Amino acid sequence: MNLSPLLQEEQPLSAVENIQLHVFVDASLVAFACVAYLRAEVAGQLQCTLICAKAKVAPLKLTSVPRLELQAALLGARIMEDICNTHTLPIAKRYMWTDSKTVMGWINSDQRRYTQYVAFRIGEILEKTSRAEWHWLPSDLNASDDATKWKGQPDLNPNGRWFGEPELLHMDEAYWPSSQGVNYDTIEEQRPNLVIEHEVNRSVFDWERFSKWQRLTRAIGYVGRFLGNLKAKIRRVPATHGPLSREELEMAETWIFRAIQKEVYLKEVVLLSKLDIVKKGVKLGGGSKLYRLSPFLDEKGIMRMESRISLAAFASYDTRNPIILPRNHHVTTLIVMWYHHKFLHGSRETVINELRQRFHVSYLRTVVRSVTGKCAECKIRNAVPRVPLPRARLGAFFRPFSFTGLDYFGPITIRVGRCNVKRWVALFTCLSIRAVHLEVVHSLSTESCKMAIRRFVARRGSPSEIYSDDATNFVGASNELRDEIKVMNASLAETFTNATTKWMFVPPSTPHMGGAWERMVRSVKSAFYAMSTTKLPTEEIFGTVLVEAEGIVNSRPLTFLPLDKANQEALTPNHFLLSSSSGVAQPPRRLVESDSVKPVKKGDLVIIVDDGRRNGWTRGKILEVQRGHDGRVRQAWVQTSSGVLRRPVAKLAVLEVNSGKTDPEDLDQCYGPGNVSVNKSDLTGSLTSQLQATLPNDSDV
């Protein structure tokens, strides 16, 4: 390194003292540069000289000035490191000078706060230099400005600031710009930080410890009494004892309502609790959950909803301004459950109506449904036994009435001549297809029942199994009927139990096991009395109406909707007995074809659809069409380049190439390899004979 400027006279190197290295950096929109100077005391005199300098043009891509200043600072740090590594002068102190406070702020803060562009370069700068070596100076004292901000021609005078002696280096150090007390904080290039705000409001009371609303209110009431007795002891006032009073319970409820509202709606409560807002009647902002409820705080500090009946003098204060409760809070669940128990596990609508008289809970119906669905007593009361259906109810691929249930109902009074006699009805129910068969029974004797069963077997076939109730399970039967059935049960079982039929009785006190035929009794009675036109029908009318009632019951739908399509009828027991619901054979249904598609006609240009060929369907012209018995075009003969082809209309696609006003004979255009324009004069006799050979006879149509 040439130190001749420092050693103007021939003096030893030991005469050079307090050597300092100063690097100035600067940047502009067109370039960024750095320049290094040595400053030392030679024989007691202050000397400085230019060591090296480097400048670069700014990138073509538009870059901000703070980033260019950072690039200049990085360039200066690299130059300083190279100078220190390439000479042996004992440098006492190093200085880095910049006129950018943004760069100073980046260097003096944690580089991890900024973007990668800034963080990586600050990291390299701090590896080569230290924060204490960086200093700020005004732009007019920055010597590197001559390489970045010159106007016109640069000042390359040997006696100028660049080659000569910068003003700052000849000043006493006491007059140098100081960085003490200067705030270099900057938000330039600062990386956005994700801040998660979670507000935790823990109540001093554990609500989950209580399973009933009354226990909770009484516990809070005794806590309030204990605190009141402590104050009374200090005031030397007699303490309160005995059961809780009404005022103490009301105070406990007030404390509970305020506590849960502060837990869930803390911001709203704080906002509404300000006196100026309450007096002025300012509403909550749109970001609040309670914005549409127009909430306010009453004199007890409870948040209530301002309803539309606030001016109704006949309604109570709670009804006009209900208390706002959160729907997912445990206390709300306790209140709903208390109302549910208060009204004896009755209708949910009753509970909802009573709750609305005092409280406002969002989605109240859903909350009530959820809470009451967890009631153990309701679960036990509404429990339904889920047992598998008996084999007789699932007898598939058996003829009807293979598994039969038998029951009696009556008596029904009819008129025979001038006398009124009693008749009973034997109801046979198919347990598989739910069909019924009715037989008139003249008496309750065993022989009369046998005759009814024999008539049933002759008309419906012998059943495999017969089920019936014992005498105690006949619903609606008279005492006389029950007594007679007790006597006939053993005789019937002995008569009809053989190699093909088995008679079985359901156990006593099990009406649900005979529900399949018990329900049919009601259906038959409803149909019978609806059709009966006289109070005392004759025997002939009675038999006729009974058979018609049987047909009506057997035509009832077994399903809510048809099994296949909406245009089909529902499945009924008569479908298994008579192949239709009414016994009349239904014609097969057919979908009506749409008339929106125009049929092909003679002279149309078409494409023949060929599923086995791609991108090369044959084009042709229709010569003749053939209609079916319904008058619709079914087939057509098409003239192609390879001959006349016979194709169904489903395989033909009409080309829309002409309007309806153009005569097909005038179309002499060619359509590529499918040129099918046919002139009548070109139709030779061989083509005509070929066409006639392909046309079928009238008998074939």
Shape: elongated
Major sheet strand order: 3-2-1-4-5
- Supply Rg: 53 Å
Tell me the helix content: 25-40%
Roughly what is the average pLDDT, rounded to an integer? Answer: 80
Quick one: how many beta strands?
Answer: 19
CATH class of the largest domain: Mainly Alpha
Strand content: 15-25%
How many helices?
Answer: 18
CATH-assigned fold name of the largest domain: Endonuclease III, domain 1
Main sheet, how many strands, which sense, barrel? Answer: 5 strands, mixed
* CATH architecture label of the largest domain: Orthogonal Bundle
- The poorly predicted ranges are 276-281, 471-482, 591-595, 659-701
Distance between the termini: 116 Å
Count of domain modules? 4
User: Structural class from helices and strands?
Assistant: alpha/beta
Give the helices and strands, then pairings.
Blueprint (H helix, E strand, L loop, with lengths): L15 E12 L3 E12 L2 E13 L7 H22 L4 E8 L2 H7 L8 H13 L5 E3 L76 H23 L10 H19 L1 H7 L2 H6 L14 E3 L5 E3 L11 H4 L2 E3 L4 H13 L5 H9 L2 E3 L2 H9 L3 H6 L21 E14 L2 E12 L5 E6 L4 H15 L4 E4 L10 H18 L5 E4 L9 H17 L7 H16 L18 H5 L27 E4 L9 E10 L5 E8 L2 E6 L3 E3 L30 H10 L7
Parallel strand pairs: 1-4, 4-5, 8-9, 10-13, 13-14
Antiparallel strand pairs: 1-2, 2-3, 6-7, 10-11, 11-12, 15-16, 15-19, 16-17, 17-18
